Amino acid sequence: MNTAPVRTDTLDLIGNTPLVLLEGPSEAAGCEIWGKCEFTNPGASVKDRAALWIIRDAEARGELKPGGTVVEGTAGNTGIGIALVANALGYATVIVMPDNQSQEKMATLRALGAKLITVPPTKFADPNHFVHTSRRIAEETENAIWANQFDNVANRRAHIEGTAPEIWEQLGGRVDGFTCAVGTGGTLAGVGLGLKARDDAIRIALTDPHGAALYNYYANGELASEGSSVAEGIGQGRITANLEGAPVDTQFRIADEEGLEWVARMLREEGLCLGLSSGINVAGAVALGRQLVADGREDARVATILCDTGFRYLSTLYNAEWLESKGLPVFDWLRSD
């Protein structure tokens, strides 16, 4: 009988997430596709890892002092992770978030005791962008730090030191490929660097949604985007400090419709309720698996990130009216006719 591990510190609940073999994606790819179940973190997303490393790093450098405040600009999940870690360590939290993100994320942040400030979505060059707004608030707040998840490389260290060795050990040292989408770049770069340090032959792939610029950057050397995506928390138009030096071997661009197809299949066929970023990651993992099989590696193993829970998107991805308003297909079980 398996015995669940015992933790003496609630922050030790972050990380060491399960890795699960995904049957439908494996069949579609012709090789093994494995999903890292980041929704099992206390904040129900992969961003708990970055939150913990960023706060611990600020403490170690003496920047975050007792009774201090952590300020961050986020699409939601990093803010939730920061709020939980900050609560456990006695800090306050201020989160700045675009007002087009899901109501579930906003309600969760408020429930966790974070001060939530919402701003209109805008381009990064705009001084009113949520990232720049959060930086100014941190500068104006006494005894506060700015988490700066996009350019604070403590973010990617969370994955170099945590996620990558976990995947390596869980798969017994036999990993052929890894892929995920990019928000800050911490997960892709960190896992890529961590896995490459163990076996340089592991193929690292970017999976980019439409509307982001990184696919074209890695394919053609130019930051350029086309189309759009409703996915929250992924899609990047610049090379962040976390992305610098990321060992990207290949790249895929995934449409929302394809990501949603995998979201539907994961729920209907495998009982996993996931967000769209996870669906896009699964689609990218299938593409990477097919590429490896075509290169003669029929026994390939590909890992990806199941970023967060679909329960965070009940008002969007799992709402027929919202999907219709975006011109996206409605899951058949949500249809009333």
Automatic annotation (TrEMBL):
CDD domains: CBS_like (cd01561)
Keyword line: Amino-acid biosynthesis, Pyridoxal phosphate, Transferase, Transit peptide
Annotated protein name in UniProt: Cysteine synthase A
Cofactor: pyridoxal 5'-phosphate
BP GO annotations: cysteine biosynthetic process from serine
Nuclease recorded as keyword: no
Pathway connected to this protein: Amino-acid biosynthesis
Coiled-coil zones: none
Residue span, Tryptophan synthase beta chain-like PALP domain: 12-308
Gene Ontology molecular-function annotations: transferase activity, transferring alkyl or aryl (other than methyl) groups
